[in-house]
Amino acid sequence: MHLRRLHMWPFGKKKARSLLKDERGVTAIEFAFVALPFFILCIGIIEVGLAHLVNRMLDNAVITAARTIKTGQAAEGSTSKAEFEQLICDSMPAFMCNLDRITLEVTTYETFEAAGNFNSLYDTDGKLRDEEDITYEIGEASSIVVVNVIYSWPMMTSLLSLDPADDGSYRNLSSTLVFRNEPWD
């Protein structure tokens, strides 16, 4: 408001000048501008840290569950895909694992070079492949095995999702393990 137009102010020039000089409440207004981005940033940092923690726990769970394949225990008991997924969840805290969010593929190869070119669990559109297109073969003794797991972790700040492979409010965490089965024959 221009001071020249104060004559139009209904309460008088003195009252208008005092309102223009009044700085009470400025801190509250500035906080209102800064608070929302600050809290979104804080929650995002915590959420990304938690996603990395869950990814490390998923890695450890895959290593633990894959040990049953590597040592031949899965071959002896003919462990099904659902049972192997349950082994992965058993190695993670219960609140962090939901069987419906696990996508699992176990494939065998003749050489490590061939295993390096394993199929992605994503199709050409960047979406997870259909369950019927995903293999589960634990192999024989001394086979080279690739265990590939994707776990869909729920995210609160999904508006900030920059990865096209992530599906809506979920972040796809992956864990891949390549190993040679022990000669259990």
TrEMBL record:
Keywords, ordered alphabetically: Membrane, Transmembrane, Transmembrane helix
InterPro entries xref list: TadE-like_dom
Residues covered by the TadE-like domain: 25-67
Membrane-crossing segments per the record: 28-50
Pfam families from the UniProt entry: TadE
Protein name, per record: Pilus assembly protein
Species assigned in the record: Roseibium aggregatum
